[in-house]
Q: What sequence folds into this?
């Protein structure tokens, strides 16, 4: 989860959509005469919407979530007009991620619930499982642990009913997140370990890395630093091998926190250097901003205020580039508080 840290770890929301092949059906003469769009017009509209959705994905990956939302809204209008429910589901998935990145949680939740409604209408049980898990993660991020637990429990029930091993692993992992939020780290660890067994059965490397990161979060919150470092390290190596950049960045963040907490500052700086290089390679300005912010906090922790100020200022510049006024104000406040010392 899908899935920086709002809890002891970072929840990275996991949005997975399983599409079934479209079934071709014949139409009679009357239906053909009353179709709102010709075949060529339908294809043209579909291609335009698909292009908008691809652009939205690229904008989101580059850190421009606001632009991704705009592209999704345009694509949705077309998909609605041609009645393509499955494409609408994909678009709502991306829109939800973009809204959440912009901290527009209510709009993100609305997009996820629309996605869930489509999955129910089409009796797409796999997509129901993943939509419920995404809603649960969002509720958890907003502090609604009880509602999150009920939602993911529904997902787990569906997964077990239809024998969806992948969905069962994801749901168990997210139940671990709920337990962690409630402060029951031992229960969370057990749930994560069970989830790992399911994820390994399906060869879901991305899911396994995500659950390993969750497990690292639980160990970190429990103050078990050796297991924290070992678990995050396993997640980082797995994510790097599979080119899963989100989990790789998340594992690095966990390792930076763990190593700096136990006084291994040089290792923390080495990891931050890797993080910044990766963010720049991805041309992801938001992740680059997070790297600068982490550098600033670590230098501030060490009492090196001039260098910390430099990194805060670089992060502020990127926040302005991203038009993220909330993050800009937060960074300026941190810098101001530091300079008063």
A:
């Amino acid at each position: 989860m899908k899935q920086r840290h709002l809890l002891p770890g970072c929840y990275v929301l996991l949005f997975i959509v399983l599409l079934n092949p479209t079934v071709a059906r014949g139409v009679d003469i009357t239906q053909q005469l009353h179709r709102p769009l010709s075949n060529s017009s339908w294809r043209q509209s579909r291609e335009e919407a698909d292009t908008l959705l691809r652009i939205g994905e690229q904008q989101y990956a580059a850190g421009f979530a606001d632009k991704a939302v705009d592209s999704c809204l345009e694509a949705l209008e077309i998909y609605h007009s041609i009645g393509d429910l499955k494409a609408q589901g994909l678009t709502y998935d991306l829109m939800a991620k973009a809204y959440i990145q912009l901290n527009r949680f209510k709009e993100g939740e609305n997009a996820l619930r629309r996605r869930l409604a489509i999955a129910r209408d089409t009796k797409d049980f796999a997509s129901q499982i993943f939509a419920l898990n995404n809603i649960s993660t969002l509720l958890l991020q907003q502090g609604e642990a009880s509602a999150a637990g009920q939602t993911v429990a529904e997902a787990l029930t569906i997964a077990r009913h239809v024998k969806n091993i992948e969905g069962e692993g994801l749901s168990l992992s997210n139940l671990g997140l709920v337990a962690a939020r409630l402060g029951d780290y031992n229960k969370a660890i057990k749930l994560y370990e069970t989830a790992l067994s399911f994820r390994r059965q399906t060869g879901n490397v991305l899911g396994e890395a995500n659950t390993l990161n969750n497990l690292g979060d639980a160990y970190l919150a429990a103050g078990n630093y050796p297991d924290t470092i070992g678990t995050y390290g396993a997640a980082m190596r797995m994510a790097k091998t599979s080119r899963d950049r989100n989990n790789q960045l998340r594992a690095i963040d966990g390792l930076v926190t763990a190593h700096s907490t136990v006084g291994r500052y040089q290792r923390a700086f080495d990891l931050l250097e890797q993080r910044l290089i990766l963010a720049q390679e991805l041309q992801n300005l938001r992740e680059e901003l997070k790297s600068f912010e982490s550098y600033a906090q670590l230098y501030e922790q060490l009492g090196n205020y001039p260098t910390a100020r430099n990194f805060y200022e670089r992060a502020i510049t990127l926040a302005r580039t991203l038009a993220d006024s909330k993050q800009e104000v937060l960074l300026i406040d941190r810098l101001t508080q530091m300079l008063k010392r």
